[in-house]
Amino acid sequence: MGPSPQLIFDTVNAYQRSAAIKAAIELDIFTGIAEGAETSAELAQKCNASERGVRILCDYLTVAGFLNKQDGRYKLTEDSAVFLNRRSPAYMGSVVDFLQSPMLMEAFKDMTTTVRTGTTIMPDEGTVSAENPIWIKFARSMAPMMMMPAQVMAQIVEIDPNKKVKVLDIAAGHGMYGIALAQRHPNVEVVALDWPGVLEVAKENAQKMGVADRFSTRPGSAFDVEYGNDYDIVLLTNFLHHFDPPTCETLLKKVYGALASDGRAVTVEFVPNEDRVTPSMSAGFSLIMLASTPSGDAYTFSEFQRMFEHAGFKRSELHQLAPAPAQLIISYK
Amino acid sequence: MGPSPQLIFDTVNAYQRSAAIKAAIELDIFTGIAEGAETSAELAQKCNASERGVRILCDYLTVAGFLNKQDGRYKLTEDSAVFLNRRSPAYMGSVVDFLQSPMLMEAFKDMTTTVRTGTTIMPDEGTVSAENPIWIKFARSMAPMMMMPAQVMAQIVEIDPNKKVKVLDIAAGHGMYGIALAQRHPNVEVVALDWPGVLEVAKENAQKMGVADRFSTRPGSAFDVEYGNDYDIVLLTNFLHHFDPPTCETLLKKVYGALASDGRAVTVEFVPNEDRVTPSMSAGFSLIMLASTPSGDAYTFSEFQRMFEHAGFKRSELHQLAPAPAQLIISYK
To answer: Is A115 at the interface with chain B, CB within 8 A?
Structure first.
């Protein structure tokens, strides 16, 4: 084979892939194909776009693995049919709203400076600044992507069916993790904590999922607001990665204090292996934290173990959330 | 396996890969590793960057396939060693200067509108506007990437060693194609045509490559300037894709008129197969033309055949430039 510049070329041009999938989602190309518009002419009419534009975009989407093409007709792949057809219950087109939000893309504008300084180029504290509106967008757009890990989490976390179980969901966002626990266990009551604007989204979701009567909220910053006490479970889902270890430990001490004596902290995170380069999605996540926060990271299990231990926890266990590409840590008081 | 959101997530976030490789090239990470700075601490010092930033970037580059990591030490892959170490003769780090130039990235800012309208969102005529300075950047930065296809082209095109061979290189850019022919055949004389600013780069290259005495220039637009006549070969390298077929045919008639009676037009292009979705690099190239030109495209061989035929050419042949991911068309007067 010999050396090839293919990967370099692909990677230098990768921003074009991001632009193409965004356009395809915004134009609702996948839904159009699902509904039978399979040629570029039919799709152009259905999606109100030029045939030339649709033809070139759909050929590109085929090259990129999102469509199959046969005799000039485009067909959805299995992934596209499940996740990109707007009529599918697992539709996740909205993830582009968050993952390609102007604020987040701006954070990647000058990675050279970011790597030189070792911190975000964003003003204030990047995405973790107080009441940053990006988290309302996150709550609205990322819920479909969190549905699967939330359900797998709810299967793994054991709940005593014979008593009321109090759950505190810190930085709840869309609220899907607490909601998934409440849906599975009728004796679970959830207190969701987040900025007020974000909690509106979580409340809507609790309503939709039929658990609103066991879902209450506590507005404010996880670092400042009173948690209450005697929780059986405190959920920390995709939150700790925003901060450095000392800040995490400060928060975990507060969590420890809010737990009942047999309570557990349940952490969902992208946890890379100790080599920090596998599995790919958890390991690659670290770059997003470098770009968008002052000192966040994707921590390894041993790093989490140490933080929980310093905060007083007895022991921590690592679980996989497969097929979702994330990990779960259960830490015992 | 079942459906997975992995490809969607990867593609929505692909712009981050582009940002990461750019930073790595600008910080000269690959050269640093080649010179023995293999830990994040050593590299941080060598590249004048923060250790935290370098560690996260290098882990990400490992996930992306540009590095290998063992026991905390980073090593170059074969591709990185050949193409991304600044001391390598095949170094092509400069390609980011063109492929991620602000003008080109701007053209991908709103692909939804581009697909709706079927043409570039850039003002004027996009990248093909008169004297657009992007082509000086192209000439300076893309030469290393064109070295290999230029040399393969020069092997394929047969040259009569017993007479003076006049070559016209239209929109010569860096000039590498004409230069490669002149290097291989001492009886080849090249006339390079392009905007004056671009020709300065081509002249520098001809000088460096030792063929300056058989290299002359003709400044101006390929559509307006006088070509002269009796050329044995007219080179059309990565030029026709910027225009629609009628515009190409107008140009090809002019090329036909400038050729000797047994002359050949030699076209280097990304030529997708008739299905337009293979091979991936040639097929994917079409999107760049959609985004950055009024009506350019990656044409199939049958489309090129038709254009050359309409311009008067007798017949055209398709050749592969493998291992370079491009194609060659020889058209006979």
So the answer is: yes
Q: How far is A71 from chain B, CA to nearest CA, in Å?
A: 8
Determine whether the interchain pair A19/B291 forms a contact, defined as Cβ–Cβ distance below 8 Å. yes
B103 residue type, one letter = M
ipTM over 0.85: yes
Q: Nearest residue on chain B to A142, judged by CA atoms?
A: B9
Q: B223 touching A, CB under 8 A?
A: no
Contact (Cβ atoms closer than 8 angstroms) between residue B63 and residue A281: no
A228 near B CB under 8 A: no
Write the DSSP string, B316-333. Answer: EEEEE-TTSS-EEEEEE-
Cβ of B284 under 8 Å from any chain A Cβ? yes
pLDDT given for residue A1 in this prediction:
62
Which stretches of chain B drop beneath a pLDDT of 70? Answer: 1
B158 Cβ partners below 8 Å, 6+ apart? Answer: none
* Residue B291 in contact with partner chain A when CB distance is under 8 A: yes
A15·B15 Cβ contact <8 A: yes
- The DSSP code sequence of A207-251 is HHTT-GGGEEEEES-TTTS---S-EEEEEEES-GGGS-HHHHHHH
Q: Rounded to an integer, what distance in angstroms lies between the CA atom of residue B305 and that of residue B325?
A: 20
Give the nearest chain A residue to B286 (CA atoms). A56
Residue A134's nearest CA partner among A123, A143, A126 is A126
CA distance readout (Å), A321 to A205, A273, B105: 22, 14, 37
For chain B, the C-alpha Rg in angstroms (whole number) is 22
A288 touches chain B (CB under 8 A): yes
Cβ-contact B243, B295 below 8 angstroms: yes
Q: Where are the alpha helices (DSSP H) in B118-226?
A: 134-156, 176-184, 196-208
Residues 304-323 of A with CB under 8 A from B: 323
Chain A: closest CA distance from residue B81 (Å): 9
Q: Which residue has the tokens 């290097």?
A: B183
Give the residue from A4, A6, A7, A16 with the most B CB atoms within 10 Å of its CB, the best one to mutate: A16
Query: At a CB cut-off of 8 Å and minimum separation 6, what does B3 contact?
Result: A78, A79, A81, A82, A83, A90
Sequence spans of domains, chain A: 6-93, 102-332
Q: A191 - beta bridge partners?
A: A168, A216
Strand partners, B332: B264, B315
Domain A102-332, classified CATH 3.40.50.150, yes or no: yes
What is the predicted pLDDT for the residue at B233?
98
Query: Residue B1: its pLDDT value, please?
Result: 62
Cis preceding-peptide flag for A89 (omega within 30 of 0)? no
Size of chain A in residues: 333
Map residue A141 onto helix, strand or coil.
helix
Instruction: Give me the CATH topology for the region A6-93.
Output: Arc Repressor Mutant, subunit A (1.10.10)
Residues 6+ apart with CB under 8 A from B105: A15
What tens digit of pLDDT does each residue of A69-83 get? 999 999 999 999 999
> Which parts of chain A register pLDDT below 50?
none
Interface of B with A in 117-146 (CB under 8 A): 117-119, 145
Q: Is the peptide bond before B279 cis (omega within 30 degrees of 0)?
A: yes
